[in-house]
Design goal:
Diaminopimelate Epimerase, Chain A, domain 1, five-stranded mixed sheet, globular, 11 strands, manganese ion binding (chains A, B), about 40% helix, six-stranded parallel sheet, homodimer, alpha/beta, inorganic pyrophosphatase (n-terminal core)
């Protein structure tokens, strides 16, 4: 086969970056010409993990069709979350743990999805099925991705398979996953150096819900109240972002990773869809969402149903 | 989990019936409450295989939501090829070897697709990965499905993995796959007892191409000319079918399974899309397609591109 690129979603989190590196490595071991790239700069949490395991950051691309015809997607499938010129490319492989939507191919392809907490958990199975050994550095990164996606196994997206995967990879990487994981998650909660405009973009994804463009961003913290001291500035940034990009509704999810709760800031219309989805009344555009930490499992399906 | 149904596509072929039986068996061995059903009567080829291996025909259903909330799909994913009330059901699993289109979920799911010749080939991998033994009867049926989909390994959809799967399953079933396979394929080419209306429906699938409803049916034979002696009656049946169901374009593919060629009968508009797709001129609504035996690989992508 001719060379292919493999990448995760826009505004990459740790799994989007690491799953691309892991799947590229697996494909290379199987004899295929594949390069892992990223659709954006790593966030602070991911940078912490890459630094800790002394791994290089993948090359960042804005489009792919000028260098390849075919690509492999990890940790996403929806076209609006993918590379800008995805319509001009053939998708040959997908490895993902999200719902399937806005995804269509002309020809058969390789698609592997499981309803588990992290793409890297699925990739661990695929390494085993193909009898390919995982180097210690890559194992540490894949473990970091699962810790990131499951908030150290506290998210309701966590499955028994994710727990076993973290422990298996921690053994290969020879690391205490609990203490490392907490430090890594905390590294991602340093918000002071970032503008509101940066923060509402950093982990944002767009969804099509009944024809409306819904943008959902999630910010991890250890102190929700401290984040809401910046509420006015967040609102202004979101209003500007909605206007510039045509988002109908913006949900900013501020998640306390220590206590596993979130509070949402909701700007745009129809805000009633949010109230209906969570059976709450917005007060000053805000609502507490007790126990909510997973966009994928506790926000997107509920909001989709409400629309 | 509560009980789920697993089924293949409408107008089931051997893989649609057998893959449902095989996936249900695998799920049952993993402790899940699953029943294999079918969306239509088995065709003559499938009946031959079920009879040969003394297997019962799965129960036939018209809708599923009155008995279950969730379903598993095999050998298809496009909603218009699935059970009539698919929109009211949650799809938890898909195992398939076709393109992905008109498929969308609210939540993450288990999805396993590979660009191989047959769903049963993928299922063989899944039995191995889960370390579940395949009973001889089921192995014979799965082998039959792969022989059916690959026309005894002559179709260009055939991969090395399909070849190995046929041999592996033939060993478990303790059968000479070459002589059995030819008899099974021939059993499916007995067209004399069937009306034109039955034949244009038997293996038909609907595709959405640029907003047009395209219907493609395939009839296997050992004598293309003999089939075209019934051309006038086929045309009348197709015109009535197009009118009754709103199909824009109907492509009837008559495939010579011994010589690996097809001739198409094309009724409806835009017929130019067909001519463009295959770079042929239709003569009396007909065109020879040398070497074409696979709807999935040699017809659907080409026609989709032309639209």
């Amino acid at each position: 086969m001719s060379k292919e690129l493999v990448f995760g979603h826009q505004n990459p989190d740790t799994d989007a970056i690491v799953a691309a590196m892991a799947f590229a490595y697996l494909q290379q071991q199987l004899g295929n010409d594949v390069e892992a790239v990223a659709l954006g700069e790593p966030n602070e949490e991911t940078s912490y993990a890459l630094r800790h395991f002394a791994a290089a950051t993948p090359r960042i691309i804005k489009e792919a069709s000028s260098e390849v015809d075919s690509v492999m997607l990890v940790d996403h499938n929806e076209s609006q979350q993918s590379v800008a010129d995805i319509k001009d490319l053939t998708v040959t492989h997908v490895v993902d743990h999200h719902r399937i939507a806005n995804f269509e191919t002309v020809s058969p392809l390789f698609y592997r999805a499981e309803p588990v907490g992290c793409t890297s958990t699925i990739l661990l199975s695929m390494f085993n099925e193909n009898k390919v050994e995982i180097p210690a550095q890559l194992a540490g990164l894949m473990m970091s991705a699962i810790i990131s996606d499951t908030l150290l196994m506290k998210s309701p997206t966590t499955t028994e398979k994710d727990r076993i995967a973290i422990k298996t990879l921690a053994e290969i990487a020879d690391i205490d996953f609990e203490s490392y994981g907490l430090e890594m998650l905390k590294a991602g909660t340093n918000l002071d150096d970032k503008s509101e405009a940066e923060l509402i973009e950093a982990d944002a994804k767009t969804f099509d819900m009944a024809g409306k463009k819904v943008r959902i961003d999630q910010v991890n913290t250890v102190d929700i109240e401290a984040v809401f001291k910046r509420q006015a500035a967040f609102e202004a940034a979101i209003e500007a972002d909605n206007k510039a990009n045509g988002y109908d509704l913006f949900v900013l999810l501020i998640t306390d990773i220590l206590n596993s709760n979130s509070e949402a800031l909701v700007i745009g219309e129809p805000a009633e869809a949010f109230e209906k989805a969570f059976n709450v009344k917005l007060n000053n555009h805000r609502a507490q969402l007790a126990g909510v930490v997973s966009r994928k499992k506790q926000v997107v399906p509920q909001l989709t149903e409400a629309f």
